[in-house]
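Dissemination and training. As part of the outreach component of the grant, students in the summer workshop were shown how a complex can be specified as a set of sequence lines and then modelled as a single object. The example used during the hands-on session is reproduced here so that future cohorts can follow it. Participants entered these lines:
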Amino acid sequence: NSKPEKKELLVAVAANMQYAMKEIGEEFTKKTKIPVEYIVSSSGKLTAQITAGAPYDIFISANKKFPEALEKENKILGKQKTFAFGKLILWTKEDFKPSLEILSSDKVKKIALANPKTAPYGEAAKQVLQNLNLLGELKSKLVFGESVAQTNQFIDTKSATLGFTAFSTIHIPNKTEKGNWFLIPEKYYNPIEQTVVVLKGKKEKEAEQFYDFLSSDIAKEILKQNGYN
Amino acid sequence: MIDWNPLILTFKLALVTTIILFLIAIPIAYWLSVSKSKIKPIIETIISMPLVLPPTVIGFYLLLVFSPTNSFSIWLKETFDLQFVFSFEGLVLGSIIYSFPFMVHPIQSGFKTIPNSIIEAAYLLKKSKLETLLKVQLPFMKASLLTGIVLTFAHTIGEFGVVLMIGGNIPNQTKVASIMIYDEVEALQYDVANLYSIILFAITFVILLFVYIMNGKYSNKIVG
Amino acid sequence: MIDWNPLILTFKLALVTTIILFLIAIPIAYWLSVSKSKIKPIIETIISMPLVLPPTVIGFYLLLVFSPTNSFSIWLKETFDLQFVFSFEGLVLGSIIYSFPFMVHPIQSGFKTIPNSIIEAAYLLKKSKLETLLKVQLPFMKASLLTGIVLTFAHTIGEFGVVLMIGGNIPNQTKVASIMIYDEVEALQYDVANLYSIILFAITFVILLFVYIMNGKYSNKIVG
Amino acid sequence: MIQIDIQKRLGSEVQDIFLDINIEFAEEEFVVLYGKSGVGKTSILRMIAGLLKPDSGTIEIKNEKWFSSKGKINLKPQSRKVGMVFQDFALFPNMTVLENLKFALPKKSSSEIIEELVSLMEIKPFLNNYPNTLSGGQKQRVALARALVQKPEILLLDEPLSALDHEMRRKLQNYLQEIHRKYKLTTILVSHDVSEIVRLATKVFTLENGKVVKSGKPIEIFSNTKLSGKFQFVGEILEVQKQSFILIYTILVGNEIVKVFSENSEENIQVGDKVIVATKAFHPLIKKIG
Amino acid sequence: MIQIDIQKRLGSEVQDIFLDINIEFAEEEFVVLYGKSGVGKTSILRMIAGLLKPDSGTIEIKNEKWFSSKGKINLKPQSRKVGMVFQDFALFPNMTVLENLKFALPKKSSSEIIEELVSLMEIKPFLNNYPNTLSGGQKQRVALARALVQKPEILLLDEPLSALDHEMRRKLQNYLQEIHRKYKLTTILVSHDVSEIVRLATKVFTLENGKVVKSGKPIEIFSNTKLSGKFQFVGEILEVQKQSFILIYTILVGNEIVKVFSENSEENIQVGDKVIVATKAFHPLIKKIG
Ligand SMILES: Nc1ncnc2c1ncn2[C@@H]1O[C@H](COP(=O)(O)OP(=O)(O)OP(=O)(O)O)[C@@H](O)[C@H]1O
Ligand SMILES: Nc1ncnc2c1ncn2[C@@H]1O[C@H](COP(=O)(O)OP(=O)(O)OP(=O)(O)O)[C@@H](O)[C@H]1O
Ligand SMILES: [Mg+2]
Ligand SMILES: [Mg+2]
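and obtained this result:
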């Protein structure tokens, strides 16, 4: 039952990057005629899968830690490259303008953030609260999503009054109700590096093309439109 | 340093869920086993449906239903002081909904195996339906009850999709062991994940082993 | 534009898993129901254990066991051309392991309800153990078999933790509907998620409803 | 007065049985339902007990309507003061024999009756056994004891002694009669055993094709042979021996074996023949025994 | 030759029963096991059938060892050529009556035997019913038919007719005798009914306390009353009527009711008394009937 060799380039992508990646992929295919398929999941799961031999060609991670783990396992070709930075916002679907000051008010019942342990945006959110010395005070208000995506659901369903999430969230195409957001000054958190690595495998050449394409002007423009630097 | 809180919370959740579900499932399964209603197959089907959706997705729909800002939730909160998101009650509710079929189906098929004549005999001895249920029917279908209880209990321990969604992973409150292990795996902290897995495994193993040994003793007595 | 591939894959997976598990579970449940072995409670307990760990974590451990680079997997691949990660076979394996208790436990409790004398009667009519099993015991415990089949089938449709981990979400190969819905919810594409949920729901509903209606007709006939 | 007037269609498409029963008898009678297998005896008991709903009719017990299709009355089994022994025993498998009996004991009643029944029915040796480990006759005795624990006003017995040996059967027949009198019960018994019926019944209803075709005292019902001569009985030849001029016939009359000496052998009588034995001159000596 | 020599400890801690059975009989005999409820009759049949393992001993049927504790032989039930009617019928609930019978039919056998049994046992009307919907006697007939479908060499019958009415019982007794002869079966019957035993058995084993205490022809076993006088029988008084100087006793002998006229009433004989009726001068007229 040997499977036919896949034509597509398999791109494993961390959940928060998926929209930008899809647009970039379309441009890439237009240019190179190489079709692209995406495997969207959390960076942690993707790392475990790649370690176990998943047939992915490219890995786009939400931070540098995961590719480093893969490097130890001798799974990657060349070096990881940071091609964008994520931006953190406070987002709400309620009818007020979010701000860092409002976090302490009674109006805010629950604050959603991604799990700092597993999600880079969660880690960044935690740094913000630490830097503002709010972590202790707000502890009882915090609820954690397994990822940025789940954090978004908390906010989107108004289960949490507001939450920390990726700026890319509100750039999601055909998302109509964008709610209110506040872009958090970058001084409060360490840069959220979006990195890419080429994985060893049968399509290393095509993968390298994609790797390079991420630094192209077209890609940069798309990333900007999706809320990355 | 082992953090026991998630473990304690897990077993508390499993216990509460199993007990509540047991009490809810019995009347429903009973009705299903005796009813000749035309809509019975529909209800039987509906009971299985929570299984069909991924747990996180169920959790998402539960979030929509119980979002604190909607009027139903406000009413619940004001009338019963109940809030189902980001609370232990929410975990219980989510687990109950998701484990529902695991309790109801085995019990229902248990009810079906009871010979009519022993139920009739109890009625003729002037036993109410309730007393007959408790003293004749339930003891008779012990194997099925055990199946329902074990499946529900074990499943609640392992479930994390619904629980994660509706609970919000709050330490000491809704952060159960399964979520914790999941987090550690996600964070590539495999050693820690292994450690907690083993602990969870070991405790559950001992509990279930005890249940099965007791059950074996009792069954042997009856069949002689 | 509905992508039917994940849906087809889902039902294919559920069907294959249910059939294989049914065939595996019967001899195991049979042994458990007749055995008086001392180690029986231990095995009963072990059977429930897959439930105790979060599905993704089980998937993770399966990844470790079946990682194509370890020698066991290489042997499997060379000898049987079998590869259990990132393949449909892997999904089947994962689903089987995770749904194991849902099939074995109900069938085991079904076996226990069969009166000894009808089995003996079959033996005295010179029927082999196999023929007795097929023609007398299994039909007798139909309600329990149904429970096992429905729980397994529905659960396999909804499961995504193990499947996501061991399957890797590869379109047309391991991307089943549950993962797809999960992805869409994660991506905040609620409309799409709703659409697929409803389709999945509707198809499963029809299948199960059909099963229950047929079952109801048959049962009514027997109890008159 | 017990008045039962019920109709019920039983059976399947193929086998169609229409029960149309109209019987009446006084309280404290010992009534027997007699008839072929499948005629509907068990079904009648079940309708009286409230376990099966008649299609139409009334069941009136001591001026109390238990069932009336017109009056839309249908008392629950729990509200009918009946006790019943089932043809298939229906013991609770999860309780020991003693627990079965204790379960039957109404709250606040003294457990003396249990002791009495236990010693009478000789069930002491297996009081702590579960029903699965009992022999057929032992189960039957426990079932009977369980039904009697409640001292019901109406006792419904569905072949309660069929699995018992002769001796035990006699003993329990006597006991049934005794408690029937002592507690002023109304008893309805299904039995195939003529000797049992004649011993116990005050009234017999014979069923055929879903209807009562005969009713009366058992002696009237069963002594079908008309008297002619001073003495006669019907039996079956088991053995014929010839000793010089005398023929010795061994004849089975019911369960008893009788030897008859005869000098005249006009007829060719063989083993297996049903015969009538009669005599005009007969000077019997009747002696009490046992 | 059938030789059974087995020991088995039965029962629980409280009720301890030790079966020690040693019986022997020829092929083609019609053997009856007789004894009190709980004495171990069913257990003996189960050990012969291979459903219960004796603690020790041997079972040898027609020079073939079915069980031997020394020789470590213990044939499976499937390898023993026995058919059995269970006390609790053990019909397959998921099959109709006809399917039950067909299931019993060995592969490649003609289904003629089924038709024969169906018409004989009068089970045609409910052939397509499931066992749950049958009356007790109907179930019993199906169980008997099912055991006979295979024409087993050894037929084990555990009270196979106990739930049947008199007429059906007689009919099936005759049939059992007929097939016993026709197919040269060896039959082992458990029965409490003396008349049935006397009719059918060629040899009776009476069990008491786990042992065989009597064995022989049924007539020898059951005609316990010694002959004295030309004619005598034992019965029970059902009714005493006084007509001028004559007393008319209605006496139950087995299932038969006998009227006896007596002029001398030395003794005070009452209803319920067991009596012996004897006479020296007796000139019977014996006539074939039916
Ligand atoms: N499974 C069992 N476990 C323990 N004891 C048993 C079991 N089966 C039967 N016995 C005991 O063995 C004894 C013999 O039982 P058996 O059924 O052989 O009696 P039986 O002669 O057929 O009686 P009956 O005429 O009442 O049917 C009884 O005292 C019974 O309680
Ligand atoms: N649940 C049922 N469904 C359909 N038919 C039934 C059901 N129960 C009984 N019958 C039929 O009704 C008729 C009467 O049954 P019932 O049990 O009353 O007979 P019975 O007189 O007690 O016979 P027996 O002496 O054999 O016990 C039988 O022909 C039987 O097949
Ligand atoms: Mg009946
Ligand atoms: Mg017996």
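The longest helix of chain B spans residues 190-223. Students were then asked to discuss how this feature might be tested experimentally.
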